[in-house]
Recover the amino acids of this structure.
């Protein structure tokens, strides 16, 4: 269970247990590199390898956003290991060096903000992004709780995450995903056009894939549509 950037394993508490057991005892939900007290990995591939080693017997994955990118990294690197995956609002990697260069410049602005002005200024700017516009319709207590959880992170840790596993740092996984044998559900919100388009592209690319669209929802489906995500999680665990 792999969380998003600025998230944590606690984010998955919003998902209903997929069976008559304690999901927290059945699932490995690590802090990703640079989050909470976990040091940032050297690079994207090193983080994929670290996660693979945490649960060597795991055959199923759930990943959201950054966690979704890393889940795709695991599926691409180990095409025969994973049986099922649920990948939410995730990017398979930028194709062109020019795209990566532009993204690196964008990430550098966030890194400078983190290091020069700290977490409060970063969180305020991060939450103003259009990516989160649908969350303005959520109850204030939900948004406040997400803001509080983001504040548990360390500015240097998040900067390290962007430097090591940011989108500019990951390879284009499309060529390797074409050979995956994993059954994957790609989920996206109808109000998140960029990631909806990417999910549809991935559904066509991966041989055993399906597309799930959450209506009237944005990027963070774990927060906005926990029951929708829970249904797919249950389907992956109890097909």
């Amino acid at each position: 269970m792999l969380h998003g950037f600025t998230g944590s394993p606690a984010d998955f508490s919003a998902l209903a247990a997929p069976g008559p057991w304690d999901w927290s005892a059945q699932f490995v939900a690590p802090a990703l590199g640079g989050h909470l007290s976990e040091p940032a990995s050297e690079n994207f591939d090193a983080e994929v390898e670290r996660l693979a080693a945490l649960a060597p017997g795991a055959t199923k994955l759930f990943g959201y956003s950054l966690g979704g990118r890393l889940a795709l990294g695991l599926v691409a690197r180990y095409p025969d290991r994973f049986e099922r995956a649920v990948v939410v609002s995730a990017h398979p990697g930028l194709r062109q060096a020019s795209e990566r260069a532009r993204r690196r410049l964008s990430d550098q602005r966030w890194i400078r903000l983190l290091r020069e002005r700290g977490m409060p200024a970063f969180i305020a700017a991060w939450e103003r992004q259009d990516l989160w516009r649908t969350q303005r319709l959520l109850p204030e207590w939900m948004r406040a709780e997400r803001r509080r959880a983001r504040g548990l992170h360390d500015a240097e840790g998040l900067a390290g995450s962007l430097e090591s596993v940011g989108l500019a740092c990951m390879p284009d996984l499309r060529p390797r995903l074409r050979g995956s044998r994993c059954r994957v559900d790609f989920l996206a919100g109808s109000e998140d056009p960029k990631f909806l388009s990417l999910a549809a592209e991935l559904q066509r690319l991966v041989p055993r894939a399906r597309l799930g669209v959450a209506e009237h929802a944005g990027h963070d489906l774990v927060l906005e549509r926990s029951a929708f995500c829970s249904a797919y999680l249950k389907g992956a665990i109890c097909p």
